[in-house]
Design goal:
By secondary structure, this protein is α+β, with helices and mostly antiparallel strands. The chain is built from five helices and nine strands. It has a six-stranded mixed beta barrel with strand order 2-3-8-5-7-6. The longest helix has 23 residues.
């Protein structure tokens, strides 16, 4: 038993050491709650490394057509607004396969796309091509989120994950004084950087 526990511990340590950067989403994850980084802070981050910014928060999603499915109009979601550099490391896997920036882009009608975990589709009786409302904004569901490289850094979830473009976040009306938003700034340093 002792030898088995020792082997398991060593395997977990080796796995974390090998995949830590991908699991974290970069070499360093700077988190700020309830406000985004200032222009001065962003300039400093970008002067140090390649940077990807994202915002995470809990929100409610509703069917875009307003219908109720099995008594449900809305569902709690884990909203993640990502920039064009996300993810710095690893790959987001979507079904059907497509580039994340294409899935989240604004269409000619002005509406942004979104990718959602399958759990949201079943809860609200939705499918790819349908729309959801998050706050004040409508989004077209363009793909199902199968995997994201940094999901372990936000493992505690109360609802299905929903990804939108960071440019779409202001239109939701959810960024208000007092909103519980966690802003993440992932930094990826050049190979061979000391102290990282």
């Amino acid at each position: 038993a002792i030898a088995g526990i020792g082997s398991l511990t060593a395997a977990v340590r080796d796995g974390l050491a090998r995949d830590a950067r991908t699991l974290l989403g970069g070499d360093l994850d700077i988190r700020i709650t309830s406000r985004s980084a200032s222009a001065e802070q962003l300039a400093w981050f970008r002067g140090q490394a390649h940077v990807s910014a994202m915002a995470r928060m809990r929100a409610m999603a509703a069917r875009g057509d307003g219908h109720t499915i099995a008594g449900r109009k809305r569902a709690l979601i884990e909203l993640k607004a990502v920039d064009q550099f996300y993810p710095l490391l690893g790959k987001v896997i979507l079904s059907p396969e497509m580039a994340l920036d294409k899935a989240l882009a604004r269409a000619n009608d002005g509406r942004f796309g979104t990718v959602v975990e399958a759990g949201l589709l079943s809860r609200l009786g939705l499918k790819i091509g349908d729309s959801i409302r998050i706050g004040l904004a409508q989004f077209d569901i363009r793909a199902v989120l199968r995997d994201e490289p940094d999901k372990a850094s936000g493992a505690f979830k109360l609802g299905p994950r929903v990804l939108i473009a960071d440019a779409a976040l202001p239109g939701t009306g959810l960024v208000q004084p007092g909103s519980l938003i966690r802003w993440h700034y992932r930094l990826q340093y050049p190979p061979g950087t000391d102290g990282v």
